[in-house]
Amino acid sequence: MSELTQVTVIKTANIYFDGLVTSRTVICADGSRKTLGIMQPGEFEFNTQAAEVMEILSGELTVQLPGEDGWRSVQGGESFAVPANAKFTMRVARLTDYCCSFLP
């Protein structure tokens, strides 16, 4: 899906890692929540509360997911899922545009 319709956008930015990762929260008409953001090159460790699907719109990174020993390459047009209450690490190779969907 290339666009979101009938949404509420929270204007205040989510800013992480001294501004290298930023996003805006979007609340859909059905109450589901997403974030749309940009990641600059670097290595970032995140903790989740809710399960999520990270869709990479453009860019390139590797991710180490919970329970996996190695790193998985992900690029524009691909996605990966992260379970709730987990920690994962991303190594962003170049400017990356993403959409994160939080699962119920």
From TrEMBL:
Record Pfam families: Ppnp
Reaction(s) catalysed (UniProt annotation): uridine + phosphate = alpha-D-ribose 1-phosphate + uracil; xanthosine + phosphate = alpha-D-ribose 1-phosphate + xanthine; adenosine + phosphate = alpha-D-ribose 1-phosphate + adenine; guanosine + phosphate = alpha-D-ribose 1-phosphate + guanine
EC number: 2.4.2.1, 2.4.2.2
Record CDD domains: cupin_PpnP-like
A GO MF label: uridine phosphorylase activity
GO cellular component: cytosol
Coiled coil: none
Top class in the EC scheme: transferase
Keywords from the named record: Glycosyltransferase, Transferase
Listed HAMAP family: Nucleos_phosphorylase_PpnP (MF_01537)
Function text: Catalyzes the phosphorolysis of diverse nucleosides, yielding D-ribose 1-phosphate and the respective free bases. Can use uridine, adenosine, guanosine, cytidine, thymidine, inosine and xanthosine as substrates. Also catalyzes the reverse reactions.
Family the UniProt entry places it in: Belongs to the nucleoside phosphorylase PpnP family.
Annotated protein name in UniProt: Pyrimidine/purine nucleoside phosphorylase
Organism: Allochromatium warmingii
